[in-house]
Structures are given as structure tokens and as C-alpha cells.
Amino acid sequence: MEASPKPMNILILGAGGFIGSNLIAHILKHRDWHIHALDLHGDKLAQHFPHPNLHFKQGDMRGSHAWIEEQVKACDIVLPLAAIASPATYVQNPLSVFELDFECNLDIVRLCVRHNTRIIFPSTSEVYGMQAGQPCNEETSNCITGPIHKERWIYSSSKQLMDRVIYAYGVHHNLPYTLFRPFNWYGPGLDNVWENAPSNRVIATFLHSLLHRRDITLINGGAQKRCFLYIEDALEAMMRIIENKDGAATNAIFNIGHPGGEASIRGLAETMLELVAGQPGYSNIRNEIKITSTPGGDFYGAGYQDINTRIPDISHAIEKLGWQPTTSLQDGLVKTIRYYLDQKR
Ligand SMILES: NC(=O)c1ccc[n+]([C@@H]2O[C@H](COP(=O)([O-])OP(=O)(O)OC[C@H]3O[C@@H](n4cnc5c(N)ncnc54)[C@H](O)[C@@H]3O)[C@@H](O)[C@H]2O)c1
To answer: What's the domain count of the chain?
Structure first.
């Protein structure tokens, strides 16, 4: 545990999700900072409730304006992590995505402007859209989305517009900000893979199928490729952004991903099948399940559109934060699978 001269106060909204719960566990273990946290659900944080530095409030951001403003005023840093990030919802209920991801978070951005509090906002690799070819770069890549009737782009567009709004507040109203763009982070605490099938994250969805010995369904054959980053590497990047040594993260945008962690979705399914087959009780799984495929439109709805590949250019994070990932996809998947199996032992 590192003691700070003046312990930091951090407000985290959407604190009980995958990134929030992992970040909070990490901070409580390694720093003496105080965390003020809000989420609709506290299940993933419950083990930390006795910790004196965690101040958790269960509630909805939309009805907590006065409480949030009080915290924004008192805290050094605000991390608004609450969002809907589920492709099925982009297509089935796009307005709910816009309302939470953009409108609701815009209130938080404006509170940060009013109280001059530093904001660290989660953008997404999705803002690069269908930008193809070269790895995505924060400064030079275009952000290209599809036609309006392809409703899946509402998430990317909401996040992209928020990036632009935050950037403009930084330039024109001196808002201190950092935007980070996660590229498919995964690891323990992703989703509850033992209950309902998760709808949003491919690794959790495949694990749900595998651990329940059910067929895996690929979308459009699974030729699409993504780069996967293990959560421990991601947390190291987050800590460097939060600590902001020499102002390296001030008014900056960072891709946080693993260019070497690329796999096709079919390759990912096959690797995960092999890894689960190596776990006690699952040695026969290759004979018990099949890997099948379905068209994206049938699975998500007509407003779905796929992206073939998306590789992060992380030179900016290497140069400014001195950060780069060290966990291979294979090692990260093994740790993740073991974490979920341990929940049942
Ligand atoms: N995980 C990734 O790989 C990834 C990739 C790109 C972008 N992001 C962005 O990072 C952020 C965090 O992602 P995550 O993976 O932790 O998501 P998550 O879905 O696991 O967590 C979001 C949390 O927000 C909470 N929440 C939702 N609506 C709320 C409300 N009205 N009031 C209070 N809490 C509410 C949810 O209960 C949930 O715990 C999101 O903005 C997401 O878009 C994540």
C-alpha cells in the first residue's frame, strides 16, 4: 500500500460494473485513496463494503443529481463509467443508449466544468467505426460509421459526440480531462457467466456456453477480428492515467488495447474450447458441443452491421504513460476461465 501525502478522492459512477469493480479492488489494495461510488447494483463490490475508504451508494444516476454534484465538488477526479454497451440494445432500444451514454453523462461533464474537477471519461474503440487498414490512432484516424438505418452506430456516435464535447470543454472552458478508449477488455468480473447468457461481451458469452456445455454461436462465421486486453494490464494503464505523472494524461486521449492480443472470433471460440477442455470435469467438452454460426441480422436485428478488424495504435500510451500490455491472450484467458471455475468450487 502506497501512502499519498494527501489521499485522493475519486468519484466513480457505474462503479459496480466490470471496469469499476476491478479498479476499485485495485485501488483499495494499493492506495490510500477514498472512493465515492454509485451504481444500480453493488454485488461485485460487496466484498469491499467493510473497507473504510469505500463510500458506496446504491442508486440511479438519473435520480441522484444533488448527491453527485456534492461529490463532484468535493472530489479530485470523476470517472463516469455508467453506460449501456450491449450491441443487442444498440439495435433494439437505441434511444436508451443515447439517453444514458450521452445525455445522462453530459450532465456529469457539465458538473465537472462547473466545479473544475478533472474528468476521466471512457470513450471506446467503437468510435473508430469502420475505419479499416491501419491501426487506429487517436490523432490521425477517421471515425467512420454506417448509414442511419444501421442503428448499432448509436453507441459509437454517442461516445464520439461526447469525446468531441469533452474536448471542446477542454479547449474553450479549461476542463481538465482524459479520454481513454478501451479495446475489448476482459478478465475476472466480466459478467455473471453462471446465470443468464450475457448479451454484450464475446468472452463472457462464450464462457457461458462452454461452462454450461452448450453450442457456441458465432455471428456471420466469426471471421471478424478483435484485439483483447487483459484487465490487469488495463488497470495499470488506468492507474497511470489517474496519477497523471508530470501531467502526461492531461487533456489527452489514449487507446488502451493490446495489438498483440488479436484473434478472430472463431479463433477465440476454438482457443477457449481447448482451454476449457484442459480444466477438471470438462475433458470431453469437444465432443459435447459444436461451434455454429448465424447471420448478424438474425441474431441482433436489421440495424446490425459488423466490423472486420480493429487494431489499436498504442504508441501514444507507450510514449506518454510508459505503458504497454504484457499478458498474452492465452494467459489472460486461462486466468479468466479459472476465476469463473473457482466460483463454483
Ligand atoms: N469493457 C470494455 O471493454 C469497454 C470497451 C469500450 C468502452 N467501455 C466503456 O467503459 C465504461 C465501463 O464499462 P464496463 O465494461 O465496466 O461496463 P459495465 O456494463 O460492466 O458497467 C456499467 C455499470 O454502470 C451501471 N449503471 C448503468 N446505468 C446506471 C444508472 N442509471 N445509474 C447508476 N449506475 C448505472 C451498471 O449497473 C453497471 O454496473 C462504459 O462507459 C463502457 O462504454 C468498456
So the answer is: 1
